[in-house]
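Homework help board

Subject: predicted structure for assignment chain

Our instructor gave us this sequence and asked us to write out the predicted structure in token form, then describe one feature. I got the tokens but I'm not sure how to describe them. Can anyone check?
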Amino acid sequence: MRNNRLTVDSSARQKLSSGEIEQLKLAETGSGRAIIAKIMESHTALDEKTAFSLAKYTLRKKQKYLRRFTVLPLDVPMLASYILNEKDAGRTMELREETLSLIASWSNVHSVGNITSDHEPIGRWLVVDDTIGLLVALLAERMGLLHEDRTEEPTMDEPPHDPQTNGDTDMKDTSSAATSTEAKTSPKRHTIPERANSNTITLVHTALQPNVSSLNYFGFDLNSASPTGYASPTHPLHKHFRTLTWLELLAPEASNSSIEPEAVSAEVLATWKSSKRGTYHRKRRRWEKSHATITETRAGGFDGLVVASSMDPSSVLRALVPLLRGGAPVVVYNPAVESLVELVDVYSGARKTAFLQALAGAADGVGAEALVGDESDFPVDPRLLLAPSLQTVRANQWQVLPGRTHPMMTGRGGAEGYVFTALRVLPAEGNVQARGRFAKKRKTEGGDSLVVGEVVEDVS
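My token output:
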């Protein structure tokens, strides 16, 4: 039986040098199969190999010179992995695929569906995104608003024109029947879930223009010029995405975008040149859009808050949590754990009890807003969030072998990534009394009955 006992593995048995193989790779006609065939022909001891050794040798050459790839549709987890491993991971705050799934799950992002105009708008999420728009893309994908619908159904009314038929009716009928049969059996090329028409994403940013460059991978360019003055008017995200700065949110009277352009009558506009009229209408539309966004955001009533920012999370939540409706989830991501541990502390039960005691001992007319501030013991109002918790998740690759099971030592390092979660609650107005149950009667040593009275506790 043939074995590998006398086989000598030496580079001298291969006639082709590495330089000649590189020349074959650079040649125009040098495909992977042709290179593998020439390597096999140039091996002088190929007949000495066993069947298993020959198959193993051939497989190694195919893996090296015969490259294959599969085209996959781009989604947000794939883009996050690409940026994390191939690009600058710091631009996305080292967000991982499993962390994105955790954020999407706890923020309860979903597609509301088709809601008529008679209903109250629902499905509104508030976002603070310093990850070049990766969080916005995640929310838009869960809402069905990220990917454009490029499905084109072929029309089967008329058969395709074939110049070789020369007007032959029989051949046209045959071609039409074959085409219609193929259309019935072939699946659609691309399908997307039903989009929502009532979901909105409102992004609060620090710069003059938000940095959401990751949306360019999905065909949405916020800075693209269009005849209507808006970015990507044909994209499904166009009508559901709002942006405003922190200055417009906190002090709109100090923002230049909040200044209304002077109204001009139609008679005066008729006397202007077309270029001047176009400039006036563009400024008017820009102000109307900015004013509507500011008014809608300051009115509140959002269904969730998602934050991934290098800013102090306490200052961010102090301004944005009052804009949420009751029961709305709050999710804050940070690559480091220290700032989120402080956030859990400022919303803890002990801090809430101290806040209630300070509020009860304050002078008349002093509200909760006077106790909250950066210089006080309460950087936020601890009554507004319930059940604060801190979580982390990271899926490490493991090598599983008998007696050698351990994490892959060549895996990428970096930040673990932590997620703060809580629920928005509405503090009750006035005094709230908690009444305990009546206890059963107990007999004392003298035979008399002892009744435990009602327990009343003021937790206002």
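Reply (TA_rk): Your tokens look well-formed. For the description, you could write something like this. Confidence is low (pLDDT under 50) at residues 151-191, 225-229, 452-460. That's the kind of observation they're looking for.
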